[in-house]
Each structure stands twice: as C-alpha cells, then as structure tokens.
Amino acid sequence: MFSQLLEEIGATDPTHRAILDPATEEIIAYAPERSVADVDAAVEKARQAQKAWAGMGHAERSRLLLAAADAIDEQAEALAQLLSRENGKPLSGPNARMEVAQSSEWLRATAGFDTPGGVLVDDGKTRATISYEPIGVVGAIGPWNWPLMITIWQIAPSLRMGNTVVVKPSEYTPLSVMSLVHILNSVLPAGVLEVVPGGREVGARISEHADIGKIMFTGSIRTGRAIAAASADSLKRLTLELGGNDAAIVLDDCDPKQIAEDIFWGAFINTGQTCAAIKRLYVADNIYEEMCGALAEIARNVPMGPGTDENNLLGPLQNRQQYEIVARLVDTARNSGANILAGGEPVEAPGNFYPATIVTDIEPDNALVVEEQFGPALPVIRYSSIDQAVEWANSLEVGLGASVWSADRERALDVGRRVEAGTVWINSHAVPDPRIPFGGIKQSGYGLEFGAEGLKGVAVPKVFNG
Ligand code: NAD
C-alpha cells in the first residue's frame, strides 16, 4: 500500500539504516542518514527559495497550503498505513488515521487564519501599525510520537508567514515524515520545504546554523536545553515544546462511571506517548475506589496489538528505550508497595508491548508520579483536601497541560486558576484545536503554537510609526 511512497523517497536501499516495525520487529524499509554537509546544502536551497516564497503573498501561499492539504488527503490511507507500521500506533481510534486527517485539517485551518497585525495607535497626531514579517529559514526538529501532526504544526504556520523550512525528523520515524514532505512537495515550489533525515548531529547543525533564524522544536527537555545553548551565538528565535507530566484533578462531585472513558483516553491516547496526556491523576477520597475500579475495567478490556489490525486501539511502545522506562517506573512503584490494579506484567511476545496499567495507592512522590513515563501506565493518587491536590500538581518543574474534572464548571475553573500549566482543560484533556494557542510554561518550554499566536511565533514584528 505504501511501497510506492517508500520507493519515491528512496527508502529501499539495504545499505541504509533499517527501520523496524515496533509491533513485529520486522524491517519495514531503510532510511537514508544525511550528514552535516547535507544540512548546509538544504539550508542554502531554502535560503535561496525564501525571497520568492515571501514575495508570493498570503493569498497565493494559502492557496498552495490548501492544495497541499488535498495532496495529503489523496494519499491518506498509504500515509496512515506507513505511520502505523513505523510508529506502531493503530490505524483505528485516536491514532494513525486520525493523525493523518488532522494533518490536512491543520493545514487548511492555518491557511485560513487572518494575518496578525494592524493599527496600534491612530489618535490624529500619531499613527502606528504593526505587521508580522517572515523570519527567513526556519528549522523544524521533531519527535517520534506524533511525527506527522507535529511536523505540520511546525511547518504550516512557518510557510504561511513566508518562511522556508528545513525539517529534521526523529531518527525513529523518518519514513513517515519524509513521505509527508514528499507529498507536500508535489504542490510546493522547489526549495521551500526541505527534509534532512539523520541523527542528533543533523539537529545540532540546524541549531547552530547562521542562516536559520528560528527553530521550532518539539521533544525532550534535555534536547531543548541543548538547542537553546547551540543557538545562542546566532540569537535564534525559539519555540520549545518540551516534556510534560500533566496532572488531572478529579473533584469530589464527579460521577466516576461517567468520566472514566474520557479520563482513560486523556491518559492512554497514542498508548500514553503524548506530551500533553494525563500522566498523574489526583482523585478525591470519597470517589477514589470507584474511579480506580472504572479505569482498571477499561484498561483490561481495550484491545492492544499490532496497529494494522483494525480492532486494536492501543499499540506497542514506539521504541525499546521507551518500553524500558515504562517497565522500570512500574516496577519501582510495585516495589514501593503501590497496588497494580490492571496490567503491570510485560507481554511475552515480539514487539514493545506493555499492557495498559493502572497503579493505585501510590505515594505522591513516587518515581512513577514525578517522572514522565510517556507510556501506558497511569498512577492514581488519593487526596483528601483540594489544597493538597493543587500543591502536588504544582510541585514539579514542568507545566505543559493540566485538567480539572467536576460536575460544576465554576468550581473546576476556580481550581484550574491555581494550577501551573500552559493549558488547563475542564472536563477533558489533550484535545488540541488549531484555533487555540498551545504551549508550555516552566521547564515545558516557551512560545505558542496554533492560531494567530502561532503565526506571530514564526514571524518578526515590524512597527511603522508616523
Ligand atoms: P528527543 O529530544 O530525544 O528528540 C527530539 C528530536 O531532537 C529528534 O529529532 C532528535 O534527533 C533531535 N535531537 C537530539 N539531540 C539533539 C541536539 N543536540 N540538537 C538538536 N536536535 C537534537 O525527544 P523524543 O524522545 O523524540 O520525544 C519525546 C519527548 O518529547 C517527551 O519528553 C515528550 O514529552 C516531548 N514532547 C513534547 C511535545 C510538546 O508539544 N510539548 C510534543 C511531543 C513530545
């Protein structure tokens, strides 16, 4: 189904790096690994293409972004099949097909936003306006968990604002991203969108390159810090979407049965490998047992297996390293006396499958609570006072998303105002919307993506006064 795409992106040469299916450990294809010199060549192409791209104006660029969205839709099933094999995420549910569909939806939404800027002062004596101009060449460095969607999040606003882009996909999921870029390039002018697959040296070169004016980065806190340091000499603008450890607080007036399904998917979306998923759940004493029971019931019954089986809704961990992190944290919790209410026993089969796991009666400072597990294991912590729950929620260095759950929206908002996070959802979690800005605080990074704020983030402001 996707063999044509693999041929077109040159991923059939067995001397290149083998990419394994995380569900079966079979080789899917071979990814070329590019060098630092290839980065320089790609940046130069993007630099040369940028003036003409900026000169086209918003209407023409938006038209091309809409055409690019159509091109994705035409290849949607092939892309989803490839993504499912390379990343492991199932085709069905909130997974591969959804990710592909959201990628074209995001492009369309971004093509349609009003351009930011306008009149600042006009009082008869002074007239001042602000406009947002292209930066030049943007570097887009991404992770493996939502490789297509995050690439689109980075490139759609950048292109819309008249920048050209050099993309560096994660070394774990290069095939999906190279295919995406290949499809987009069937519509975009040459040089506007370049992709350079490779390891961290490729990312490091992008971070320091003098001809790149902005980095859009999504990934770990550690790498975010390395990029900030490497880009300091050239004073690049940065948007850093880094790690999270999102808290969800369930208030004492909730009906556990009614919210269990939404909480489960808020935590286990993409088999838990989502930056802004629920990673620690604080539940009021009076409904604690019932909430844990309802979540465990779902965890035991959601089908997990190879992504290409239409019935499965949970898949393997994308890579062995991530599997080891999840297994270690659950073992630490078990050894400390916490209760494994569902899952917790690794599956004896090929692939990186770790069962959906609910851990209860766990201390708030347990490693499974305070470290980012980034996988299918949810610690549920009991609280007896809301002040205590808020204090625990705010006790970590990260602040990406959070959510508060209550039958009374005003009560939830009151609590939400006290929670330190870039986004606080009320009675939902991890539902991104192209119109609504998204970004972290504290060590989860800085800069906003999406909507008009996202467009500003990939532009430089210019003020006219007089
Ligand atoms: P990672 O930081 O290991 O890798 C991300 C990318 O950075 C890869 O392409 C990698 O090759 C590149 N890279 C590595 N070293 C580099 C360097 N020195 N300079 C430049 N680039 C370098 O992250 P990951 O393991 O792929 O992703 C998982 C992490 O990403 C989790 O912490 C997760 O929370 C976070 N994440 C955050 C968001 C968000 O929106 N905030 C979204 C998804 C994932």
Structural notes for this entry:
The protein has helices at 3-8, 36-55, 58-74, 76-87, 96-112, 147-160, 174-184, 200-208, 221-230, 256-268, 288-301, 320-335, 367-370, 386-393, 409-416, 451-457; strands at residues 17-20, 27-31, 117-122, 127-134, 137-141, 164-168, 193-195, 214-218, 237-241, 246-250, 278-284, 339-342, 357-360, 377-383, 398-399, 401-405, 423-426, 441-442, 445-446, 459-465. By secondary structure, it is α/β, with parallel strands linked by helices. The chain has 2 domains: 3-242 and 444-465, Aldehyde Dehydrogenase, Chain A, domain 1 (3-Layer(aba) Sandwich), CATH 3.40.605; 246-426, Aldehyde Dehydrogenase, Chain A, domain 2 (3-Layer(aba) Sandwich). Strands 12-13-14-11-10-16-17 form a 7-stranded mixed beta sheet, sandwiched between helices. A 6-stranded mixed beta sheet has the order 7-6-5-8-9-19, sandwiched between helices. Strands 3-4-20 form a 3-stranded antiparallel beta sheet. α9 links the parallel β8 (214-218) and β9 (237-241). The protein is globular and about 60 Å long. The protein starts with a helix and ends with a strand. The mean pLDDT is 97. The structure holds nicotinamide-adenine-dinucleotide. Residues 141-145, 168, 170-171, 200, 203-204, 207, 218-220, 223, 226-227, 241-244, 275, 372, 374, 400, 440 line the site of nicotinamide-adenine-dinucleotide. Belongs to the aldehyde dehydrogenase family. It comes from Corynebacterium occultum.
